[in-house]
Structure to design on (146 residues):
């Protein structure tokens, strides 16, 4: 076991856990807010939108170092899954998040269109969570083999 691998497993687990909380716990809370949900979601989108690039960057660098320093098939699988996560995040989720973050709390604009975007973001978030959990599992397998 190396410090690099352990660090990567920890970063991966923390990110998967944070996304799980956002995707399950926060979604339940926000959906229970009624009309205030749009304001809360916009605030959440802006807040998480500021720190998530850092978290994903740290995981990407850590995964890259892990694959280079201690190549194994499970680590390579984790890295490949991370590339899929990043492609989906950058091409689909970030644009949705940016539109959700710009919601007008006064309610002007298309409420149903906004709700459709939130529902799509929630579905994509579920896929991203599943992939992040698989990344963490692959890294744990790699760690167990060192």
């Amino acid at each position: 076991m190396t410090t690099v691998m352990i660090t990567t497993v920890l970063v991966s687990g923390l990110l998967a856990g944070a996304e799980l909380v956002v995707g399950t716990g926060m979604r339940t809370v926000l959906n229970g807010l009624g009309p205030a949900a749009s304001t809360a979601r916009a605030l959440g989108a802006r807040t998480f939108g500021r720190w998530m690039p850092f978290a994903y960057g740290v995981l990407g660098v850590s995964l890259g170092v892990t694959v280079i320093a201690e190549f194994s098939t499970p680590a390579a699988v984790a890295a490949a899954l991370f590339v899929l996560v990043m492609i989906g995040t950058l091409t689909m989720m970030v644009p949705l998040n940016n539109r959700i973050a710009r919601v007008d709390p006064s309610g002007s604009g298309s409420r149903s269109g906004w709700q459709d975007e939130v529902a799509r973001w929630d579905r994509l978030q579920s896929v991203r969570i599943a992939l992040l959990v698989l990344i963490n599992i692959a890294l744990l397998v790699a760690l167990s083999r060192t």
Q: What stands out?
A: The CA atoms of residues 63 and 104 lie 38 Å apart. The chain has a mean pLDDT of 86. The chain has one domain: 3-144.
